[in-house]
Specification:
This protein is α/β, with parallel strands linked by helices. It has eight helices and 15 strands. The longest helix has 14 residues. The protein is globular, with a radius of gyration of 18 Å. The structure holds S-adenosylmethionine. It holds the Pfam family Methyltransf_11.
Length: 264
């Protein structure tokens, strides 16, 4: 819990991990995280893809996208490509994805080609200008990828620029309260300060990733600043079909959040 010692406990995915404080140096963080996703990413953290928004929250229940037929879609951090495939199968007219990792982009390309779907892919950090068309998309969305950004406000402004007026932005990420609390001996224990948004690195399966955990108000205020109106926020957990410690934790607090916002 001592923020100044450099060493701390964080939650990454569903697990408690040791972490060390690091400076927010954008190029170092991009190098670390693209290497992580190029090599270990999906093996260690797995793919999180539609219809799942993350643990215990699904599109099938909440219907945030609704009918996407004929709609132009862009995924930020498209990873394995499964969410693009899901929306392509539902007759979206255009599928676009960006990701920082060449290997993830290649996985998406292979999956969509095998599914007979056409996709436009760009390998780039989401924070950077990367040649995506502006005022173009009906939906921009991101399933467990937005939190990797080194610049939340800048990324949300870019997302707004890609959307048509009244276009929809949907994204999911780990709920910040989940990132602070672990289940120990059937008790929920705070391991980290909710307000601590500083950057940290963790080693998982001999690979390193760098992250920061933002508060909910940071997300809400960054959306407002980028010109979005929030239409819905989801932090419920549907745990009825699940057992185990993670589900036990998710019965008590949200582990995933989802925002649906509209460009004004
Ligand atoms: C948890 S995965 C996304 C899961 C994805 N929905 C799937 O189905 O695989 C996070 C993705 O974000 C990408 N990523 C990490 N940092 C990024 C950044 N700064 N800009 C763009 N993509 C990034 C990773 O390469 C990875 O593919």
């Amino acid at each position: 819990m001592d923020k100044n010692s450099g060493f701390r406990t964080n939650v990454v995915g569903g697990s408690q991990v040791g972490a060390i404080a690091v400076d927010m140096d954008k190029s170092v963080i991009h190098k670390t995280n693209s290497l992580f996703w190029d090599t270990k990413g999906n093996d260690v953290l797995g793919a999180t893809a539609l219809p799942k928004y993350g643990a215990f929250v699904s599109e099938e229940k909440y219907q945030l996208f609704g009918d996407v037929s004929g709609k132009k879609m862009l995924e930020i951090g498209c990873g394995s490509g499964q969410s693009l495939q899901y929306l392509g199968d539902r007759k979206a007219s255009e599928l676009w994805g960006i990701d920082i990792s060449e290997n993830q982009i290649e996985k998406t390309r292979e999956l969509l080609t095998a599914s007979g779907l056409s996709v436009k892919l760009i390998c780039s950090p989401m924070e950077e200008k990367c040649g995506l068309p502006e005022d173009y998309f009906d939906f921009v969305y991101s399933i467990y990828a937005i939190g990797w950004t080194t610049d939340l406000e800048g990324t949300f402004c870019r997302v707004a620029s890609y959307l048509k007026k009244d276009g929809v932005f949907i994204f999911s990420w780990s709920h910040p309260i989940h990132k602070c609390v672990v289940l120990e001996n059937n008790m929920l224990v705070f391991k980290k300060c909710y307000f601590d948004e500083s950057w940290y690195s963790s080693s998982i399966s001999e690979s390193t990733l760098s992250l920061s955990d933002r508060t909910l108000s940071t997300y809400v205020n960054a959306l407002a600043k980028a010109g979005f109106a929030i239409e819905q926020m989801i932090e419920e957990s549907d745990t009825q079909d699940y057992d185990g410690d993670f589900a036990k934790k998710a019965k008590m607090l949200p582990v995933t959040f989802v925002f649906k916002a509209r460009k004004l």
